[in-house]
Amino acid sequence: MFALPARDRRLRPFPAAPGDASRPRFSARMLITLGSSVAGLGIASYLTLAHYTSVVSLVCPNSGPISCDAVTTSSESYLFGIPVAVLGLVYFVVVLVFALPPVWRARHPYVAPARLALAVGGIGFVCYLLYAELYEVGKLCLWCTGVHVLTLVIFIAVVTGWDETVAYSREGDAAT
Amino acid sequence: MSWVAVGVVVIVVAVLVIVKVTTSNSSASGGVSSGDDPAAVPAQVVAAITKIPLSTFNAVGTDGQADPFVETKDQPALAQDGLARVVYVGAEYCPYCAILRWSLVAALSRFGTFKGLKETSSTADVAPIPTFAFLGSTYTSKYIRFTPYETSDRNGAALQKLPAKVEKLYTTYDGTATTATKFTGGSQSGIPFLDIANEHVSSGDAAFLDPTIDPLAGGGPGMLRIAQAIAHPNSTVAKAIDATAFVVEANYITAAICRSDGGRPSSVCATPGVRAAAKVMAAAKKIS
């Protein structure tokens, strides 16, 4: 009954777009993902070093359900002939690249989906590794658990920040 | 929607942990079955003894102990399905067999998988040694075939009758409790008998395993702590039960299999601990 004329409807402001111009250059999720990637890369490097050298051994208690030795020397420590430690190292290098602020704000349409795929793939692999530790090896590796927690943090940051990352890419598109 | 995905992951992780914790609590007794109907070995025990760290095998090597096998030559091949065959003959009452089974399970698990292992102990007449029962278990491997026989139960009653071919192996390479053969050198005749592809045979237990019997008599620290001690032989419990000896025996059994199956898999056979044992075996005099 009181419908606005078409001309007035055009005057109404559009809802704020996710890629609003006030978006900060650095977001909390961006920094959390970056920090977790750096920490994950550090632990994965340590695990890889311990895997390939006898000079470096993991500082880890071997009591009760905890045994890094049992986990990292088990047959489950390889996947398709590749040490899981190396897979973790490669994973965190790639995630770190995708977590860098310039890449986070990249205009490329595939960056955000690729980051999401990495996060989902990473947490899926963590679930498998957790299963292997608990049910195949029967021991937990504290350093591996550290990597798993960091992967979960990255997963949460990326998945719950999907709108944000898409907005960043749209913002970039608008700027071009 | 995104928080739903996070929730799903958290639920999956929680289910994995909760199921593991509840099943472990209900099965990990760590004790020794005293009945004649053995219970399944708790998963933690199986995990500990079948997944001994490679670093443990390598660090222990032979520990300076002598080859427990008699090395043979020019013997007929002992194979099944085209694979090297491992024959074990023992008895459930036998304490030396109980000791050997720890190393045997550890070594064979490097080539394949046991299912349905039960926990038991040697005869209750004297202090029982906690161990595994092979009867009712299965072993699968793509490298070897394993055929265990227990001739008597814990009370000494007849249990499994040896097939004629196995009986012949036993009398040829082990003799009997009173009759030695050239392969036994007139000593240590009797069970446990181990024949790996007719290339490595042993009768009786290895002398270096004897010191493990007293600490385990009566149950020792329990199945779980024994398994963990063997996996990590530098621990206090391990030193108390001389756990290193079990690892030495496992390395020798592993090396014997590797020398009989063409060195497969290399991830096992090319490791320092196994190679150390194989080196000792290669230097031993062979009996034909």
**Terminal Cα span of chain B:** 74 Å
Give the number of DSSP strands of chain A. Answer: 4
Q: What count of helical segments of chain A does DSSP give?
A: 8
Runs of chain B in which pLDDT lies below 50 for 5 or more consecutive residues are 26-35
Biggest chain contact:
A-B, 24 and 23 residues
Mean pLDDT of chain A: 79
Q: Report the span from N to C terminus of chain A.
A: 43 Å
Give the quaternary arrangement of the chains. Answer: heterodimer
Helix percentage range of chain B: 40-55%
Low-pLDDT runs of 5+ residues of chain A are: 1-21
Let me know the largest β-sheet of chain B.
Answer: 7 strands, mixed
> What is the topology, as strand order, of the major beta sheet of chain A?
1-2
In terms of DSSP E residues, the strand content of chain A is under 5%
Number of strands of chain B: 12
> Helical element count of chain B?
11
- Class computed from helices, strands and strand pairing of chain A: mainly alpha
From the alpha carbons, calculate the radius of gyration of chain A and give it in angstroms: 22 Å
Q: Which outline of chain A best applies?
A: elongated
Q: List the helices and strands of chain A in order.
A: HHEEHEEHHHHH
Outline the structure in words:
The complex is a heterodimer of chains A (176) and B (288). With 176 residues, chain A is mainly alpha-helical. In chain A, 66% of the residues lie in helices and 5% in strands. Chain A has eight helices and four strands; from the N terminus they run H-H-E-E-H-E-E-H-H-H-H-H. In chain A, the strands form two sheets. A two-stranded antiparallel ribbon of chain A has the order 1-2. Chain A is elongated. In chain A, 35% of the residues are buried. Chain B starts with a helix and ends with a strand. Helix content of chain B is 41%, strand content 17%. In chain B, strands 2, 3, 4, 9, 10, 11 and 12 form a seven-stranded mixed beta sheet that branches. A three-stranded antiparallel beta sheet of chain B has the order 1-6-7. Chain B has a two-stranded antiparallel sheet with strand order 5-8. The radius of gyration of chain B is 20 Å and the shape is globular. Chain B is built from eleven helices and twelve strands. Chain B has 288 residues and is α+β, with helices and mostly antiparallel strands. The interface between A and B is medium-sized, with 24 and 23 residues.
